[in-house]
C-alpha cells in the first residue's frame, strides 16, 4: 500500500503544479521601444518640462502616512503641499501588493502578473527581468541619459546592471533591520547632490518603513521617527536641486494595520504619491488640494486623500513631462493636472498621444472625442477593461492538471474505501472534505474559511457527546479550549473585531508575559515518561526560548514587564553594562537564536541516540515532541504563544476521547488532526490572503548575509506552527502504544486520509479557479487561495507529513 500512496502523492503534486503553471503564466508583452503615435513630428517641438528626475520610493508608504494628521510626520512635505510646490495623490496599486509586481507596474505602466508575487521572494530568479521590455527607464537610456540607483535590490532583478551608472543595492528581505538598510541609501546623497551634472535620473528606494510594518505593525512606535527621517531626506533633496528637477515621492504599495501587504484591502492598495518641484507653484494646484490644508484632520476609512489616481499613471505622466514616448505595454492614463504645464496645443498633442497608445494596447479603433474630460474618461474605461484581461491562461496545462488530479482523486477514493474499510470515520472525512470543497465557489466563503473549520470542529465535538454523554466533562473542556482559541485573533478578511484575546493581552502585557512564561516553561511537563535529565534539558531549552522572545520584544519596541526586563539584564550582563542596553541586546539576538537552534538539534540527537541504545517502549516522537513544541513556540509571535498552553491541555483529553469513542481508529484521529491543523492555522491570525504571511520570525538566527532557502523554511515553520503541532501530536498519539501491525502499515494508513482530503478539495478548487477566472476577485481571493493550497500540499503534506514525520518513523 505504501508504494501506491507515494505514487499517488507524486502524481497529485505534479497535477496541482501543472495546473498552477497554466493558471499563473508569464504574461506576453510587446517587445521593442515605443514611438510617438500621434503626429510624431509635433513632439519634436515640445520642450521637456523638467531636465532631471529624482524618484524616491518609500516602501509601503500608505496614503495616510503622507497626508493624514494623526498618522503622518512628513511636516516638510505638508508645507510644500500647502504652498503649491508639491502636488499630492492617493495612488491605487493593483494587487498583488508586493514589491516586485508593483515596481514592474511603476516602470512599465502595465498591470502586474500574480506570479510576480511568488517570484518576489525568489532571490536568484531572473524570469522577471525587464531588460527587453519597454519602460521609462529604457526610454531615458535610449536618450543616452544617466541613471543612478540606490536601495532595494529588487530593481536589480528587473533591470540589468548596465542600465545604471552607479548602483548600491540593499537586501529587501532582511526585515529585522530598519536603520542600516536606509542609511546605506542616504549615505550616497551628499556626493550625488554635489555632483548633479553626472546624472539625469536618481532612484532611491527606502525599505525601513516597510520593515517596521512587518515587525511591529502600522502603528509601531518606530513608525513616527521613520517618517521624520524620510521627511528630512526629502527636504535635503529639495534644498539641493533647482526648479528643473522633478522629485517624485511614492510608495510601491501600502500596508494593512498588521503591517503586512500583498492583498487587496484599502490600506494595502492605497499608497501615497507626491510630485515636488519649485516650478509647480507657478500653476494652480490640483482641484482636490486647493481647499485642503495639510495634514488632513479627517481620517478616511478607504484611505482616499486628495485626488485618487492609478499608480501606473506615473508612467505616461513622466513620459509627458520629459517628452519621450509612452512605453509600449503601458495602460496608464496621464494625470490631467500636469497638462497645465503645457500650452493648449502641446497639451492636446500629449493627451491624444496617450489616447492613441491606449487604443493601440486595447486593439481598438480611434474615436473622435472632444475635450480633455472626454478623453480621460474613455481612457479610464479602457484602462479598467485592459486590467481585467491582462492574463492569458494556458488552457492546455490547466486541462492536463485538472484531469490528472481528478483521476488521482478517483484512485485515492477507491484505495481509501478499500483500506479504511468504509468506516463512519471515513464518511466524516469525506463530509468535511465536501463541505470545504463546495465553499471554494464563493469568494466570501474563501475569505471566511476559518468559520467552516470552526463549525467542523464543533460538529466533531458534538458527535462525541452524542456517542459518549458520560464524557461530558472532557468534552466541555475541549470545547471551552477551542472557543478560547477561536476568540484569540481576527481570522477572516471581511470583519475586524476589536476585543480579541490577543488585543486584550497587548493592553495588559504583564498578564501576557505571565502566560507566555507559563506556556514555555510548562512544555517539558507534557512528556509522559519524565526523568531528571529530560526535565533539566527541557527546562534549559525553554529558558533560552523565553529569554530570546523577551529580548526580541524589547529590541523591537514592544511592551515587556519590568520584572522580565530585569531578568534579561541579569542573564545578559554585557547588555546591562552597556551605555545603550537595547542596542547591546540587539547584537545578542542572532547568537542567542543560533544557540537555541543548536541546543534543540542537540537534544533531538541525544534522544535519538538514547532511544536507539535503550530501545524503550515509548516512541521516539513521544520523546522529542516537547522539543518540537518549543521550536514551534520559538517561531511564533509572542501574542500567540499562550495558545500552545491550550493545545497542551486539550491534547491529552482528545487522545483519551479518541481511544474511548473510536477504538483507536486511524482515520478518525487523522480527521480530527486535519480539522485542528486548519482551525488553529486560522486562529493564529492567518487568512487566505498573502497579506497575512508573517515574516516576523523568518529571520531568527539569520545574519545579514542570509540564505533565502533558510529564511523560506523558517517562514513556513512560523506560519504553519500550529498545524505542525497538531500533525506531529496526532502521529505521536498514534505511535504511543505498540500498534497491532507494523509501523509502516500504520504510517501508510495515517497518510491516506490527508491525501484524500487534499485531492477532493483540490478538484473543486481547481474547477472553481477555471470557472471564476474572469471574476472580479480572481486575483485578490481565488488566486491567493490556490497559492495557499499549493503551500499546504508542498510544505505541510509533503515536507512535514511525509519527509520529516517519515524520517522520525524510520529512526524509531
UniProtKB/TrEMBL annotation:
<dbReference type="Pfam" id="PF01663">
    <property type="entry name" value="Phosphodiest"/>
</dbReference>
<keyword id="KW-0812">Transmembrane</keyword>
<dbReference type="GO" id="GO:0051267">
    <property type="term" value="F:CP2 mannose-ethanolamine phosphotransferase activity"/>
</dbReference>
<feature type="transmembrane region" description="Helical">
    <location>
        <begin position="595"/>
        <end position="613"/>
    </location>
</feature>
<keyword id="KW-0472">Membrane</keyword>
<feature type="transmembrane region" description="Helical">
    <location>
        <begin position="393"/>
        <end position="412"/>
    </location>
</feature>
<keyword id="KW-0732">Signal</keyword>
<dbReference type="InterPro" id="IPR017850">
    <property type="entry name" value="Alkaline_phosphatase_core_sf"/>
</dbReference>
<feature type="transmembrane region" description="Helical">
    <location>
        <begin position="633"/>
        <end position="654"/>
    </location>
</feature>
<dbReference type="InterPro" id="IPR045687">
    <property type="entry name" value="PIGG/GPI7_C"/>
</dbReference>
<dbReference type="Pfam" id="PF19316">
    <property type="entry name" value="PIGO_PIGG"/>
</dbReference>
<comment type="function">
    <text>Ethanolamine phosphate transferase involved in glycosylphosphatidylinositol-anchor biosynthesis. Transfers ethanolamine phosphate to the GPI second mannose.</text>
</comment>
<feature type="transmembrane region" description="Helical">
    <location>
        <begin position="666"/>
        <end position="686"/>
    </location>
</feature>
<dbReference type="InterPro" id="IPR039527">
    <property type="entry name" value="PIGG/GPI7"/>
</dbReference>
<keyword id="KW-0808">Transferase</keyword>
<feature type="signal peptide">
    <location>
        <begin position="1"/>
        <end position="22"/>
    </location>
</feature>
<feature type="domain" description="GPI ethanolamine phosphate transferase 2 C-terminal">
    <location>
        <begin position="390"/>
        <end position="811"/>
    </location>
</feature>
<feature type="transmembrane region" description="Helical">
    <location>
        <begin position="794"/>
        <end position="811"/>
    </location>
</feature>
<keyword id="KW-0256">Endoplasmic reticulum</keyword>
<keyword id="KW-0325">Glycoprotein</keyword>
<keyword id="KW-0337">GPI-anchor biosynthesis</keyword>
<protein>
    <recommendedName>
        <fullName>GPI ethanolamine phosphate transferase 2</fullName>
    </recommendedName>
</protein>
<feature type="transmembrane region" description="Helical">
    <location>
        <begin position="755"/>
        <end position="774"/>
    </location>
</feature>
<dbReference type="GO" id="GO:0006506">
    <property type="term" value="P:GPI anchor biosynthetic process"/>
</dbReference>
<feature type="transmembrane region" description="Helical">
    <location>
        <begin position="424"/>
        <end position="446"/>
    </location>
</feature>
<comment type="similarity">
    <text>Belongs to the PIGG/PIGN/PIGO family. PIGG subfamily.</text>
</comment>
<feature type="transmembrane region" description="Helical">
    <location>
        <begin position="706"/>
        <end position="734"/>
    </location>
</feature>
<dbReference type="InterPro" id="IPR002591">
    <property type="entry name" value="Phosphodiest/P_Trfase"/>
</dbReference>
<dbReference type="InterPro" id="IPR037674">
    <property type="entry name" value="PIG-G_N"/>
</dbReference>
<comment type="pathway">
    <text>Glycolipid biosynthesis; glycosylphosphatidylinositol-anchor biosynthesis.</text>
</comment>
<dbReference type="GO" id="GO:0005789">
    <property type="term" value="C:endoplasmic reticulum membrane"/>
</dbReference>
<keyword id="KW-1133">Transmembrane helix</keyword>
